[in-house]
Write a structure and sequence with these properties.
Distance between the termini: 36 Å
Strand order of the largest sheet: 1-2-3-4
Shape: globular
Largest sheet: 4 strands, mixed
Radius of gyration: 19 Å
């Protein structure tokens, strides 16, 4: 999806929809087609022109390109389209997963929209949830030993993952994210209503963004100078 960010390894960087991030790392992996986020018609156009090719459809991580909230209808239609095309729908929840929106994964609030949802939070803890309600293409492609990671599955990483998941559950952090996020979102919308330069305030849980109608480089610079 346009404006998405999926990582800095060669394949994930190639899938990223941000030319600024990709500069200096060419040649990139070919074969990725990008479409506007939340626009199912653009995905259908790709499907109609790419009948002979197998590909996965990735949903943009909603934090990198601005806090962009996908509609339920968009996710439902995307799920149905991927089923018809035998595409694997991959959902990048690195930023919005593990309770930040008030759910374990933001997609869990959107019915059956994806088969796999992965999250790699900062530092050592990492977790991955896999949902395969209709095992088909993904079950045939990935089997034990098909793919791996140099440091994946190490005892320290796994133990810290369990501790992180336990803390999220036992301390009620998801409910807290939903409650505090609602307070912050309502307060920001009230405080910034009608303010010049503010285009929109949007968010879900503790993922909240303020969109301006102008470049904000100077504002960011002043903020950092004040912080220093």
């Amino acid at each position: 999806m346009d404006k998405a960010f999926h990582g800095r390894t060669l394949a994930t960087l190639s899938a990223t929809g941000n030319r600024k991030v990709q500069q200096g790392f060419e040649p990139l992996v070919p074969g990725f087609v990008r479409v506007p986020f939340n626009d199912i018609e653009s995905v259908r156009q790709v499907a109609s022109h790419e009948q002979e090719r197998r590909r996965g459809a990735g949903r943009a991580d909603p934090g990198e390109g601005g806090i962009n909230i996908s509609s339920m209808r968009y996710l439902r239609d995307l799920r149905e389209l991927c089923d018809r095309q035998a595409w694997l729908l991959m959902v990048d929840e690195v930023q919005c997963g593990l309770g930040r929106t008030g759910k374990w994964f933001r997609l869990s609030a959107r019915r059956d929209s994806a088969r796999m949802s992965c999250c790699s939070p900062r530092a050592l803890p990492r977790a991955c949830r896999s949902e395969v309600p209709r095992p088909r293409s993904s079950g045939r492609v990935f089997k034990p030993g098909t793919h791996g990671s140099t440091f994946g599955g190490n005892p320290l990483g796994l133990r810290s993952t369990l501790a992180t998941l336990a803390a999220i559950e036992e301390e009620g952090l998801m409910k807290n994210a939903e409650r505090i996020g609602g307070i912050l979102l309502a307060g920001l919308r009230e405080a910034l209503a009608g303010r010049p330069g503010v285009a929109e305030v949007r968010g879900h849980g503790l993922m909240i963004g303020v969109e301006l109608d102008r470049p904000c480089g100077d504002l960011s610079g002043r903020r950092w100078r004040r912080a220093c």
